[in-house]
Design brief:
This protein has 19 helices and eight strands. By secondary structure, the protein is of the alpha/beta class. Helix 4 packs across helix 9 and helix 13 crosses helix 14. It comes from Candidatus Fimenecus excrementigallinarum.
């Protein structure tokens, strides 16, 4: 079999994603598996589109099987996000290639960067530079540059290449047999403010959706109906604005919750708790707490992790089960094959998880909480319990 895996958020799925998916399908004729981030994202914010809407987009565009990356991995720093996704693909037992987008498109250079970051020399340099007050990202880049040169360090400046390096590091640790393919990113950059031709970044599309602007020129014809139906139904775009007073109230009255979040530091927790005492909006809190060392994304992840009850220990021990969101006819065949090969329990229904161990139950309870909170952030607010009732997506 020749099956590729993609780790993605697709918030929303756009023409650039379609190009990546098509190229991946060209070298993986037996199927493409997508590990999809859930209702809260790696950037530390609620997804604009619910995970099942994004799963429908991926399947409509040609993906064969969509799995859910659990909350402690989907809303996490790049290293944890990548490790969870790679472990997921490897444990499925049918994926032989990891495909990811890249600004440089140079797999050899990305592999050199992954090896450089993993080296003890670099790790020692990172620790030294962190003590001087640098952010982790700046310290990592500087430490790599010192020992391995500018060309290798340069790939640690662009978002997709940074994730690519983390994917390769995770493969070295968790899935050495998994082949990797770096697909050159085309069109607008990751956070570009303006489109390039018919390709716009996901962040630009989210801004357009919040402003009520049309986006269909930048979304594949096969998925635009899914996107527009979600908007008409009031499922998207989700925004934290309707809940920010509650989040601020939580941080003001329960600051100790910050002591248990992933990527914890006492300095960060103190800055967030102090900022919460005067901030009137979450954006004001993020700006007040931000320093050279503590970037916006890290602050956002800490705030939402505290609010949702995600702890540092939740990502330890890896992914406890494989949650299926949807599949095509070919994806159904992949599932049948995976059933006899998977290294972790397969979960097609909530009841499948309920029969597993306490750690799986804990992970699922976090997903339920995230879904219930996300339902309040949508234009048309939803009720609790969709994790227990939403059916599998079949196309």
């Amino acid at each position: 079999m020749s099956v590729a895996g993609i780790i993605a958020e697709y918030d929303p799925f756009h023409n650039g994603h379609l190009l990546h998916l098509r190229e991946t399908k060209a070298f993986s004729p037996d199927g493409v598996v997508v590990v999809l981030g859930g209702n809260f994202t790696q950037r530390g914010a609620p997804a604009a589109f619910p995970k099942r809407v994004r799963a429908k987009m991926a399947l409509a565009a040609g993906a064969d099987l969509v799995l859910e990356l659990p909350l402690p991995f989907s809303m996490a720093r790049a290293e944890t996000f990548a490790s969870g996704g790679v472990e997921f693909l490897a444990s499925l037992g049918v994926v032989d290639t990891l495909s990811f987008g890249s600004e440089c498109g140079d797999l050899s250079l990305l592999q050199r960067a992954a090896e450089a970051v993993d080296s003890e020399t670099t790790q020692a340099g990172i620790r030294r530079l962190l003590q001087s007050g640098m952010s982790y990202a700046a310290a990592r880049e500087a430490a790599v540059c010192e020992r391995y040169g500018e060309a290798v360090a340069a790939v640690l400046r662009t978002p997709n290449d940074i994730l690519g390096v983390e994917y390769l590091r995770a493969c070295r640790r968790l899935a050495p047999a998994l082949e990797s393919r770096a697909v050159l990113r085309q069109g607008a950059a990751h956070n570009a403010a303006q489109p390039s031709g018919r390709i716009a970044s996901a962040s630009r599309l989210r801004e357009a959706l919040f402003a009520g602007e049309p986006v269909r020129d930048f979304v594949p014809a096969k998925t635009v109906s899914v996107l527009e139906e979600a908007v008409r139904a009031g499922l998207a775009p989700a925004s934290f604005a309707g809940l920010e007073a509650g989040v601020l109230a939580f941080l003001r009255t329960a600051p100790d919750a910050l002591a248990h979040v992933p990527d914890f530091s006492e300095g960060l927790a103190n800055r967030i708790a102090k900022a919460a005492r005067t901030a009137r909006t979450l954006e004001e809190l993020y700006d007040t707490a931000k320093t050279k060392r503590y970037a916006h994304a890290r602050i956002r992840r800490a705030v939402w992790s505290a609010y949702l009850g995600v702890r540092e220990s939740d990502a330890q021990g890896g992914v406890p089960y494989i949650r299926v969101l949807g599949f095509s006819e070919r994806g159904a065949s992949l599932l049948q094959t995976a059933a006899g090969r998977a290294a972790k329990p397969m979960a097609l229904r909530a009841s499948d998880i309920r029969r597993l161990d306490a750690r799986a139950e804990r992970m699922f309870s976090l997903e339920c909480a995230a879904a219930d909170v996300h339902a309040l952030l949508r234009p048309r607010r939803g009720v609790c319990g969709e994790e227990m009732t939403e059916p599998l997506i079949r196309v």
